[in-house]
Every structure is written in structure tokens, then in C-alpha cells.
Design brief:
The complex is a heterodimer of chains A (about 170) and B (about 120).
Chain A: H1 2-26, E1 39-40, E2 45-48, E3 54-56, H2 57-60, E4 66-72, H3 77-90, E5 95-102, H4 106-116, E6 122-126, H5 130-135, E7 142-146, E8 151-157, H6 162-172
Parallel strand pairs in A: 4-5, 5-6
Antiparallel strand pairs in A: 1-8, 2-3, 2-6, 4-7, 7-8
Chain B: H1 2-34, H2 52-66, H3 71-82, H4 97-122
Helix pairs in contact in B: 1-2
Classes of the chains: A alpha+beta (about 170), B mainly alpha (about 120).
Chain lengths: ~170, ~120
């Protein structure tokens, strides 16, 4: 009886381990913790891509509309795949796109915009990546949706796709 | 000559204290960086990582220390941005209480089993 019980415990334990490891094989290695998403936009001062002047965050987000902050770089391959979708979104008048040019070379970034089009109403320079940290970003590309109360209501890590664009359109409707 | 001597001594004292405060800041910075998880490298601290994310965090921590923020305030800042996961040493809160209490409960449970065995052996 005791032996049977021990065998039962061992089988249950091994099955448990098998399920855990099997599930582990199918899940992504990159764990992105759930952070309290709805938070106010950070206050910062950043260099404007076009004018080279420093500008305060309250001046950037002064209109009573939705904003998208998109972190991009010319060296980032996934940024190229999401770029047409950003161009699509930029046609929507109830939203403004702010680009955060992350750890990039100015000329390369300029060529990127010239080649693929400019979906952004303003581009900010984040030379050392610290502005991205203020937003809670992991890297490029990353997209934040900001509502009229100036709260970050959504964060999309990685390139956006048509599904995300539809989701954004639904929210800003 | 006397004034010159005093000036030299004063210069040495100020440069030494500056060096000392830099050293203290470096120690604090390294301590903080070793306790921050590199979120894109998995299993590595920001201190050990050379990734872009880690180098941005290193700059931010350096900046915050120079702004006069305390260790706990810097952790709080990063927690607000990235959640509790970014800190290796988790705080006791409603999300982590199981993590903190489970070892204690297991210890008590094990202790109770050993105690019961000893009592039954004595009988």
C-alpha cells in the first residue's frame, strides 16, 4: 500500500515536471512583465530632429487628441516592416504620431525618412536611449498609445501589425 | 610662502574629498546595477550586460545618483517604469507575499514533521 502511494506521488511529480517543461518549450524566452499600463506620460526635455532645438514634453503633447509615441531607428529591421502601418495611421486626423529616434545616426535616420516617408508630426532624438527608459521602453521598435488625459494606455513591444492598428483605431474612435 | 602651503593643503583636501565622493558614488552605482535585471538579456544583471537597454539604464542610474536620489528612490523610479520584475531583490507586497512566506511555511511544516517524529520515537 505504502509502495503504491510512493509510486503514485512520483508519477504525479514527474507528470507535473513534464507539463511545466513542455509548456516552457512553447513559450517565448522573452518575459515581458505586466506593468500598471495606465500611467501619466513622463516629463522630459528632448532635442527636436528637424530644428535641433530642445523642447519640453508639455509642448509636444499640448493638443487635446490621442498621441502615438513610436520608438524607431534606421538600423532596426522590424521598424521597416511596421513603417507602412505607421504611414496608414498618420492619415487619421484624430491622432498624432511622435517618433523617438533611438540611438541612431542622424544622416541614416534622415535617409530612412526620405526613403520610406514621414508618418511623424514631430521626431525627437534619443541619442543615448535614456528617453526610452523614461517611457519604460525595452528597445526598438516600441509603440505607446497616449489618450486625451495624457495617460499611456497601451504599450506594444515589437513591431505593430494590422491587428494592433485595428485595435488602436477602435480605441481612438 | 605660508599662504602657498595652506593653499596646497586646501587643494589636496578638496581633491581628495572629491575623489572619495566619486568612489562612494561608484560603489553605490555598482550595487544598484547588480540588483537590476537586464530585461532583454534574461538572467543577467544590468551590471553584467553590454546590451543597449543595459547601457541606457546605466546612464539613467548614474544621472539619478548625481541628482541626489537615494538607492530606494532609484529602485522606485525603475519599478514605476518596468514593474517589480526589474529588481532582483523583490519587495514584500501583495504580489510577492507568497514568495516571501512560502519558505517560512515550508520551514515550519518541516519542523513540525521532525518534531512529531522525535516525539513518536521517544514514545
Amino acid at each position: 500500500m505504502k509502495n503504491k502511494f510512493s509510486l503514485f506521488v512520483v508519477v504525479i511529480f514527474l507528470s507535473f515536471c513534464f507539463v511545466i517543461f513542455y509548456k516552457g518549450l512553447n513559450t517565448s524566452n522573452n518575459y515581458i512583465p505586466k506593468v500598471n499600463e495606465k500611467k501619466n506620460i513622463p516629463t522630459f526635455k528632448a532635442k527636436d530632429f528637424d530644428s535641433d532645438n530642445y523642447i519640453n514634453s508639455d509642448k509636444i503633447f499640448e493638443e487635446n487628441i490621442f498621441y502615438i509615441v513610436n520608438i524607431w531607428a534606421s538600423w532596426c529591421v522590424p521598424c521597416r516592416t511596421e513603417h507602412p502601418l505607421l504611414m496608414q495611421l498618420s492619415k487619421n486626423e484624430s491622432i498624432k504620431l511622435i517618433g523617438l529616434n533611438y540611438r541612431d545616426n542622424f544622416n541614416n535616420a534622415k535617409n530612412f525618412i526620405d526613403d520610406f516617408g514621414n508618418p511623424y508630426s514631430r521626431i525627437l532624438i534619443d541619442k543615448d536611449g535614456t528617453l526610452g527608459v523614461e517611457f519604460g521602453a525595452y528597445g526598438v521598435p516600441e509603440t505607446f498609445l497616449i489618450d486625451k488625459n495624457k495617460d499611456i494606455i497601451k504599450k506594444f513591444v515589437g513591431p505593430i501589425n494590422q491587428e494592433i492598428v485595428n485595435e488602436i483605431r477602435l480605441i481612438i474612435k | 610662502m605660508k599662504i602657498l602651503k595652506i593653499l596646497i593643503i586646501l587643494f589636496l583636501i578638496t581633491s581628495f574629498s572629491e575623489l572619495k565622493s566619486d568612489e562612494v558614488n561608484d560603489i553605490l552605482k555598482n550595487k544598484i546595477l547588480k540588483n537590476i535585471r537586464c530585461l532583454i538579456c534574461q538572467g543577467q544583471s544590468v551590471y553584467d550586460s553590454e546590451s543597449e537597454f543595459a547601457s541606457s539604464i546605466k546612464l539613467i542610474v548614474d544621472r539619478k545618483i548625481n541628482e541626489g536620489l537615494k538607492e530606494k528612490q532609484i529602485y522606485q523610479f525603475l519599478r514605476e517604469k518596468y514593474g517589480d520584475w526589474v529588481i532582483f531583490d523583490p519587495q514584500l507586497n501583495k504580489n510577492t507575499y507568497v514568495l516571501w512566506l512560502l519558505p517560512l511555511l515550508l520551514f515550519l511544516f518541516g519542523g513540525a514533521i521532525i518534531y512529531k517524529k522525535i516525539i513518536s520515537n521517544k514514545k
